[in-house]
Amino acid sequence: MALANENYLKIPESRFSDEIEKRVNAFKVLHPTTKLIRLGIGDVTRPLPEEAVSAIHKAAEEMLHPETFKGYGPLQGYDFLIDKILKTYRSSGIILDKESIFVNHGAKPDIGNIGHILGRDNIIAIAEPVYPVYENAAIMSGRGGEINDEEKWSNIVYLHCSKENNFVPELPDERVDIIYLCNPNNPTGTVINKTELKKWVDYALENQSIIIYDGAYHAYINEPDIPHSIYEIKGAKKVALEIRSYSKTAGFTGLRCGYTVFPKELMVYTRTGEEIPLLKLWYRRNLNYSNGVSYVVQRAAEALYSRKGRIEIQELIGYYLENAKFIREELSELGWEVFGGVNSPYVWFKTPRNQPSWKFFHELLYNYNIIGMPGIIFGKSGDGYMRFSGFCSYEDTEEAMKRIKSNY
Ligand code: MLT
Prior knowledge:
- The chain has 408 residues and is α/β, with parallel strands linked by helices.
- Helix content is 36%, strand content 14%.
- It has helices at residues 18-30, 50-62, 79-91, 107-113, 132-140, 194-207, 247-250, 278-289, 295-303, 307-333, 357-368, 394-407, and strands spanning 37-38, 101-104, 124-128, 156-160, 178-182, 210-214, 240-245, 258-261, 267-269, 275-277, 338-340, 346-350, 370-371, 373-374, 385-389.
- The protein is globular and about 60 Å long.
- The protein binds D-malate.
């Protein structure tokens, strides 16, 4: 009898945004012609930078000719892309080795797969509310324990975040081994500044813990005191891996490309206390589970570092940030409690009249024809909140705010 990995039965059957689509589809049956404005899922809507598309054309053409055709690429990524990544870190004073960069298919697979190279008994800490993938990955890998009435898992440590602490996670009272930090944060759009992040790095150094630093939204940072990389903090190379992606930076959510940094100084330990560089384990994992990212896609990513590519990216980010800023301002004018939207495409806000998230979701959908992301999707502590994303067109964002403001 082939046995199932029953840990997989403990997590939802659908993607976290599918529940929204189910409810939207029910609405559409009754109102097939109504134009809906989507401020829910954090997916980009602007087309790819021209530089990336020309690079794709060029690379595809190379695949047509025997002398330029490419088969399997280097496991960690092509040098032409890794060199650009290293140079960009260098320009912020962060020196990394070539061996530390692993080009990947975007942030999400690494966020989950990292669990394969970490001991089963590690205690995992996640913020609450949280991007569901961190929690689900812990549960699927058998690190969840039992769920209680509060929908919390016994072996996961939840880092308290609330409006009182501006949704910045607080250090745990107990010892934890693996800490997921997302900065700028999804879903709350809030940020951890350098002083706060240093506390986490110091905690990890003291406890021989590691930090899985999800920097998928780093390109949206525009305030001076917010670290773009965890390696801006002294000692972080010893305790943190950093995940970045071109998805939200350059519209690659459909193309798929990113990279994870495993500094050579980053150690994990055997039960007898022997130090093991984590990158060695990741290398072995990839050796067996991956053949790297396609040449064509890596050429597209490389093109983002050209002068024109960088300008195009800045325009894209500026566009989405402008939307987020607008949402933030408009909702604040209504007197609503609003977070994020400054260094992030996400705006997180308290629902009016303290409504549960799903109730307000329906009000938005049926009364204003707007789709938001209910805070409860990110855990029970997110109930009573809603997330809007700045990834829509400016016109639709403006229209959505007009609809809300005309009635509130
Ligand atoms: C979101 O809506 O939070 C994003 O789509 C998350 C993701 O990038 O997977």
